Amino acid sequence: MVVGGVDSMLDERSTRSRVAQRLDELPVTRTHLRVVLAVGLGLFFDMYEVFLAGTVSTALTSKFGLSGTGLALVLASAFLGMFVGAFFVSRLADRLGRRRLFLFSLLWYSLFSLLGAFSPNAATVVACRFLAGVGVGAEYPVSDAYLSDVLPAGSRGRLAAWAYTCSFLAVPVLGFLSLGLATQSPLGIDGWRWLLAIGAVGAIGVLVLRRRLPESPRWLESVGRHDEAERALEEFAQAKPLRRQPSPSPFTATTPSGEAKKPLTTAALAKQPYRGRMLMLGAFHLLQTFGYYGFGTLAVLVLASRGFTVQHSLLYTALSFLGYPIGSLLSVPLIHRIERKFLVIGSVIGMAVVGILFATAGSPALIVIAGFAFTAISNIFSNAYHIYQAEIFPTELRASATGWTYSLSRLATGAMPFLLLPLLNTGGSTVVFTVVAAALVLVAVDVAVLGPRTSGRSVEAINPR
Known about the structure:
The chain has 465 residues and is an all-alpha fold. Helices cover 77% and strands 0% of the residues. It has a single domain (10-232, 266-462), classed as Growth Hormone, Chain: A (Up-down Bundle), CATH 1.20.1250. Helix 3 packs parallel to helix 6. The longest helix has 35 residues, at 30-64. The model is unreliable at 1-16 and 247-260 (pLDDT under 50).
C-alpha cells in the first residue's frame, strides 16, 4: 500500500511536469492554428460589440431623440455588462474549464444581440446591450488564459498576436458597414438593427468551430484531471506540424521537483508577487481605457462636435479604423522580438502623442492620418498587453486574475461617457485628448515600475509557486 502510494505520487508529479514541458516544446501544429483561428474569430465579435455603440450613436440619437444621460447610457450599457462578465463569469473558466466558457459566452452574446435588433425603444436597447455585454465580457480574459495555456512558449507571442489580428478586422469591417447602414434603412429596417443582427448571426457560426477545440491540458492538470490532460495534450502532439518551422525563441523550461505542488487558491493573489501584479494591472486597466476605448467610442462624436457632418464623421472614422488590423499585423514580429513589457510602454506613449495630433488636426487628411496612426499603435499596445497580462499569473488562477483586473477596464469604459462627454461639450476635443494623454503616460509609469519581464519564458518560470 505504501509503495503503491509512493508510485502514485511519483506518477502524478511526472504527469504534472510533463504536460507543461511538452506543451512548451511542441512544434506549431495544425491544432495550434485551429486554436488561433477559433479564438480570433470569437474575439472578432468582442471587438465588433466594443466599437458598435460609438459608430451607431448618431443614428440612435436621431431615432430615439437621445441626449445627455440617454446617449451616455447607450454608450455605457454594453461596457457595464462587460464588467459583470469579466469580473464574475470569467472566473468560472478556472472552475469549469476554458472550453465551456468559450461556448457559453458566445451563445449568450448572440441571443441578446439579436433581441436588441428588435428593440422598440431606447430602454430596450440599453437593456439588451447590457446583457449582450455580459457574454462578451468573459471573452477576452478566457481567450487570453487559453492562449497562454496551450501555445508553445517560443511561439506564444507571435501566434497570439495573429489571433488578436483576426479579431481586430472587426473594427474596420464595422466602420464600413456603419458607413453603409447606420443612416440607411435596407428593406425598410433601420440600419442599426441590421448591425446588431449581423453580429449575433456571425457569432453563432463561430460556435461550430469552437466546439472542436480541445480543453486546455494545463488547466486539466491544475485541477487534478491528469488522464484527461494527457489526452488533450495528445491532440496537440499528434497533429501535423507545419512544414516550415521558424526557430523558436529560447525559453526557460521549468520541471517541478520535490513534492507535487498543491493547486493555488485565490488567496495567493493577495501575496507577493501576485499582489503587486494585481495592483499593477488594476491601475493599468482603469487608465488605459481612456485611450484605447475612448478613441473608438468617441471618435465619431468628436468629429461631429467639430462641425463635420454625420456621413463625413463616419467616413473619417472608418478610414481611421483601418489602422486596427494593420497595427495588429505589425505587432506580430515586434512581440516576437521585443520584451513585451517594453513594447507596452513604448506603444502607450506613442498613443498619447498621436492622440493630441488627432485632436488638433485641422484638415480631413491630417485627421485620417492621425486617426490611422493612433489605431495602429493602439493595437500594437493591445496585443502586447493581452499576452502580457495572461503570462504573469499561474494556470489555476489565470482566468480569474485577468478577468478581475480586466473587468476594471470595462467598468471604466462604462463610466467614461459620463466623464468625457461633458468635457467634450465644454472644453472641446483638445481638452478630452489632453486628459487621455495624461492617463496613458501614467499607464507607462505603472508598467515600468511594477511590471515583470516575460518574453520567451515558460509560464511556469514566470510564476513562482
